[in-house]
Design a protein that fits this description.
By secondary structure, the protein is an alpha+beta fold. It has helices at 19-32, 85-91; strands at 6-7, 16-18, 36-44, 50-58, 67-72, 78-83, 95-99, 106-110, 116-117, 123-125.
Length: 126
C-alpha cells in the first residue's frame, strides 16, 4: 500500500495535510476570500470527551499565543493554519485527510495522540 502524499508546514512542524485535504482546503480558501486563516483546535465534548474544531476566521482573530503555520500546495497557492497552544498539545503531529466517500466522507483527523476515537472520527480522548 502506498503512503499518501502529504504536506507539512513551511517549518516542517504542525499538522500534516494529505494531498486530498490540501486540494479541498485550497478550494475552500478561494471561496472564503482574502485575509482568512484556517483555525484548527479541540474543545470539550463529543462522544469520546474531546472534539475537533476547524473553521475559517479573519486573520485579525489570530492571538499572540497562537501558532501559525504556512502551507503551500503544488499549484503554489498558500494558506495559513492557526492553532491555540492548549489545542496544539492534543493535535500536534495529527494528519488531516479528505475523502469523497459517500459514507464517512469529508475531513478526517488521524491523531497519534488519541488513545481512543469515536466511530464518526470527530471526537477523541487522550
Amino acid at each position: 500500500m502506498n503512503s499518501p502524499v502529504t504536506h507539512s508546514a513551511e517549518d516542517g512542524k504542525g499538522i500534516i495535510i494529505t494531498a486530498n485535504a490540501m486540494q479541498q482546503l485550497a478550494k475552500l480558501c478561494l471561496e472564503q476570500g482574502d485575509d482568512q486563516v484556517l483555525r484548527v483546535g479541540v474543545r470539550s465534548g463529543g462522544c469520546s470527551g474531546m472534539s475537533y474544531t476547524m473553521d475559517f476566521v479573519p486573520s485579525s482573530q489570530i492571538e499572540a499565543a497562537d501558532e501559525v503555520y504556512e502551507y503551500k500546495n503544488d499549484a503554489g497557492s498558500a494558506f495559513r493554519v492557526v492553532c491555540d497552544p492548549k489545542s496544539l498539545l492534543y493535535i500536534y503531529g495529527m494528519q488531516l485527510d479528505f475523502s469523497t466517500a459517500l459514507i464517512g466522507g469529508g475531513f478526517n483527523f488521524i491523531n497519534p495522540n488519541a488513545s481512543q476515537t469515536c466511530g464518526c472520527g470527530s471526537s477523541f480522548s487522550v
